[in-house]
Amino acid sequence: MKQSLLSNIESPKDLKKLSAKELSTLAQEIRSRIIKSTSENGGHVGPNLGVVELTIALHLSFDSPNDKFTWDVSHQGYVHKLLTGRNDSRFDEIRKDRGLSGFLNIAESIHDSFGAGHAGTALSSALGMCVARDLQSKDHHVVAIAGDAAFTCGITLEALNNISCTTKKFILILNDNEWSIAKNVGAFSKYFNELITNPVYTRLHQEAESFLSQIPLGKSFIKLVSKAKRDTKELLAPSSIFEKLGIRYLGPIDGHDIQGLVQFFEFAKKSNEPIVLHLLTQKGKGYPVALEEPEKWHGSGPFDLVTGKSRPENTKSPPKYQDVFGCCLAKLAQSNKNIVGITAAMPSGTGLDALQNAIPERFHDVGIAEEHAVLLAAGMATQGLSPVCAIYSTFLQRAYDPIIHDVCLQELPVTFCLDRAGLSPNDGSTHHGLFDISYLRCIPNAIIMAPSNEDLLQDMLLTGISLKRPTFIRYPRGNGIGAKLKNQPGILKLGEAKVIQEGELVTIWSLGNFVEVAKKISDAIHNIYGFKPTLVDPRFVKPLDEILLQEHCSSHKGIITFEDNVLAGGFGSAVLETIDLLKLNFPIKRIGWPDQFIEHGSSVNSLRERHGLDFTSIFKEVEYFLQELEIKQKSLAV
Ligand SMILES: Cc1ncc(C[n+]2csc(CCOP(=O)(O)OP(=O)(O)O)c2C)c(N)n1
User: Fold this and answer.
1) For the structural domain made of 498-636, what CATH number should be given?
2) Whose CA, among 162, 429, 628, 635, lies 20 to 30 Å from 267?
3) Is 179 in the pocket of ligand 1 (CB under 6 A)?
4) Looking at the whole model, is its pTM more than 0.90?
5) pLDDT (tens digit, 9 = 90+) per residue, 344-380?
6) Is the CB of 150 under 6 A from ligand 1?
């Protein structure tokens, strides 16, 4: 069988041996490899298919790892992985237990100059590398590659403001495919479109392109491009924000033409001022189904290679938390005209598209701008609106200051709905929502809830809106537990925990999705030790039900807490601190995530197993605790 070209690429140097025709065959092979692998493992299909030529051209023109690339989000880094020695069995299991990470990671390869997972980091990190290079009198290139949606991020704009006064040598690739996850939003997106369609600009560019294509690489090419650029600059300057910021603008450029791209990159390498190359690419290029539905194919679960259809989910599965949230909010908004929904570029992921469809004028997608989203909500809240900010737990980290300084300090009625609290297994350390309890619990005025089932999420949403105070509701990724959904949610009493099983000797306070685990642990205790522990669903992390806690401390021998958050500063810490504050001197065992970043994995269960949070490991811990409390197994009791 003929060996594929891709199988002979062990490092970017091997690319340079290929002819133009072979490079285009290689591009096809890479596309097939990505489609095949993502059909098994899921992953970022569309973004990667869109950057095949761009990545090949980058590695042809630049010298990685000496030259540095910073990729925004880095979800589009699969091609880069394949060209930098990672076209092996680990790619077959990308995002799985033994596979590569779905993002770039400095620990995974020397070619990954910077890891990411959150948007908006490419320009600032590249600029930092430029500062180091200039100070150390080195002369390598640093290239930031950012999608059009990265320009909805505040950090990207902060970096843009800082580039030309910091370095003369900075290359920015704007990979414009017009899509964020959903269609890109905002004024920058419109502006990029204007740059592409402006007739004056297009005419000039066509001229530039036609003469570029006639000229071989080399000094004459560079000189002519520079001249053309100078000649056109006067005309272009008024329309190019980049030029105003001291960054030379060249574009629009066909992002799928390898040879053309190489010429532009060679030109950029010679530039004596910061330069941006505006590339046009198609998300999903080469896979018709992905081209047709860019939003669906931004990130996909496993799918059928031929039809592109998602592998059938169990139709009997309970609804996802995100959908219960979205439907419930849309329903509540029908009868409460003050409710407004805000998302930072995740309308479908958060389920907020239900509100978008039902009442579009009360739906706001602000782009990848979590910090702004929270301030926007704060402003709305001062004027009598009831904003609901739906932001994944991990991305809310971006908005920490406005949460403290604007919402909580002024005690404004903003309801935060934190989806993906807990594990995001395939995505890994950049995406797990394991810190929110710790980073929110220390903020005065914050009310924090975690539902143990999807119906309780509805109650908490109504409770949050009704409280008219800063409220945070954290819930996990994926399906609920199959709880019956009430038509009309109820309002919970602030801070009231619920005893779900009256028992004896030990009381187990388990939060959110760990209530189900606690029930199983309780059954095992009953079988082996012959007693039923008390089970509590605390529902509120803050305020904590101190009265119930105090009662349980006097009627039990010890307390166990479970949570889907890091132990440091988490729910168990809240219980421990309260025990200390109340001077109860009561034995406690806390179960939660350790003080380390949790990697990606195939599933919640596999990661729990690896980190001692599966049933068997937890039960072992519980048994040690029972021994400490001198509670004996049934068979050993006298
Ligand atoms: C801070 C933050 N918020 C939200 C996201 C979720 N997210 C991942 S990729 C993406 C869109 C990226 O669009 P763009 O940068 O244009 O790249 P493309 O996928 O179109 O190539 C979003 C919103 C994120 N990664 N980081």
Assistant:
1) 3.40.50.920
2) 162
3) yes
4) yes
5) 999 999 999 999 999 999 999 999 999 999 999 999 9
6) yes
517 phi and psi angles, rounded to 5 deg: -65, -45
Q: What Rg value do the Cα atoms of the chain yield, rounded? A: 27
Domain limits of the chain? 60-75+94-286, 321-474, 498-636
> Can you say how many angstroms the Cα of residue 637 is from the centroid of all Cα atoms in its chain?
51
Three-class HEC string of 29-70:
HHHHHHHHHHHHHCECHHHHHCCHHHHHHHHHHCCCCCCEEE
- Out of 44, 45, 55, 180, mutate this one to test ligand 1's pocket (max ligand atoms within 8 Å of CB): namely 180
Ligand 1 mutation target, pool 121, 174, 181, 296, most atoms within 8 A of CB:
181
What tokens does 388 get? 């609901």
List helix spans (H) across 507-556.
Answer: 514-529, 546-555
Interatomic CA distance for residues 349 and 181, integer angstroms: 9
What pLDDT sits at residue 195?
A: 86
Measured from the Cβ of residue 17, the count of other Cβ atoms closer than 10 Å reads 10
**pLDDT tens digits, one per residue of 517-546:** 999 999 999 999 999 999 999 999 999 999
Assess whether the C-beta atom of 232 lies below 6 angstroms from ligand 1. no
What number of other Cβ atoms are within 10 A of residue 190's Cβ?
11
* CA of 149 relative to ligand 1 center, distance in Å: 7
d(CA 240, CA 205): 14
Asked whether the predicted pLDDT for residue 409 surpasses 90, the reply is yes
* DSSP per-residue codes, 378-439: HHHHHTT-EEEEE--HHHHGGGHHIIIIIIITTT---EEEETT-B--TTT-TTT-B-SHHHH
Furthest CA-CA distance within the chain? 97
Q: How far is the CA of 173 from the centre of ligand 1 (A)?
A: 16
> How far away, in angstroms, is 284 Cα from ligand 1 center?
15
Which are the catalytic amino acids?
Answer: 283, 370, 398
CATH class (in words) of the domain with range 321-474? alpha beta
Query: Is the bond preceding residue 543 a cis peptide, omega within 30 degrees?
Result: yes
Q: Write the pLDDT tens digit of every residue in 60-83.
A: 999 999 999 999 999 999 999 999
* Nearest atom (ligand 1) to Cα of 120: 1
CA distance 420 to 434: 9
Tokens matching residue 418: 């934190």
Residue type at 3?
Q
DSSP 311: P
Asked whether the domain spanning 321-474 has the same topology as the one spanning 60-75+94-286, the reply is yes
Report the nearest atom of ligand 1 relative to the CA of 176: 16
Q: Please work out whether the CB of residue 73 comes within 6 Å of at least one atom of ligand 1.
A: yes
Q: Please name the fold of domain 60-75+94-286.
A: Rossmann fold (3.40.50)
| Cα 183 to ligand 1 centre (Å) | 11
- Residue 18 and residue 248 in contact, taking contact as beta carbons nearer than 8 Å: no
265 CB near ligand 1 (under 6 Å):
no
Would you say residue 393 has pLDDT above 60? Answer: yes
> How many other CB atoms are found less than 10 A from the CB of residue 533?
26
**From the CB of 299, is ligand 1 less than 6 Å away?**
no
